[in-house]
Amino acid sequence: MKKYALVTGGSRGIGKACCIKLAKMGYSILINYVSNEAAATETLNAVKALGVDAELLKFNVAKKDEVESAINQWQEKNSDEFIQVLVNNAGIRKDNLMFWMSDDEWHQVTETNLNGTFYTTRAVLKYMLNKKTGRIINIVSLSGIKGMPGQANYSAAKAGVIGMTKALAQEAAKKRVTVNAIAPGFIETDMTSSLPVEDLKKLVPLNRFGTAEEVAALVGFLASDESAYITGEVISINGGLHT
Q: Which of 79, 87, 80 is nearest to 57 (CA)?
């Protein structure tokens, strides 16, 4: 029986690194993306170069019907299999001070980061519960722990995912499904490329941004058998910026 892992937002950055890490662990990879097919294909090729099966799953996590249709269609084609690892990584930022924040900026961020995690998790959870095994790993953020000015929408959404993580961990534990969250600080990705990196590095005790591969290494551990007794946790990876 193949082992499958689904990584949302798997085409770039942390998502791509997670796909490659899980592929190295022997998982067949389902790479979710919403618009950047070229980048998703690059990730697909990188995974296949490791000798591992992979396929693209195009859907917008913020759209319930798209999520359910894509996952149900995949499940129908692979009736003897199921997704054993889910990495909820898809996310967007639309930063603004709350006074100036538009309704669209609020709703787009919460719908993708919070609702998207809910829709995707619910769609795969029933199969994990039925098989009595599974790993759900939610990529949250330092913003969801301490709040960040200019990110009321993003902080609220990620804090919501943290609460969801802790609640679902208790619901799913008896079925041996673990649910954990990883809260990165400043990580070198497209999402942080517009930030004043040199200034922000000075705030970090380790004096650098983290890498996507370092986050993926933690994802790999939480997906492994060694982490079977860890659930409901939020693990920070921020270079000592906030403890």
A: 87
* Whole-model pTM over 0.85: yes
Catalytic residue (choose from 27, 127, 154, 229): 154
Closest CA to 228 of 124, 30, 84: 84
154 is catalytic: yes
Residue 121 near residue 32, CB atoms below 8 Å: no
The overall longest dimension of the chain from CA atoms, in Å, is 53
Nearest C-alpha neighbor of 10 from the set 27, 208, 1: 27
DSSP state string for 53-67:
-EEEEE--TT-HHHH
Counted residue by residue, the chain has a size of 243
Instruction: Specify whether the backbone of 134 is left (phi greater than 0), alpha (psi in -120 to 50) or beta.
Output: left
**Token pair in block for residue 126:** 């029933």
Residue pLDDT, tens place only, 84-125? 999 999 999 999 999 999 999 999 999 999 999 999 999 999
Strand partners, 30: 6, 55
DSSP code of residue 201: H
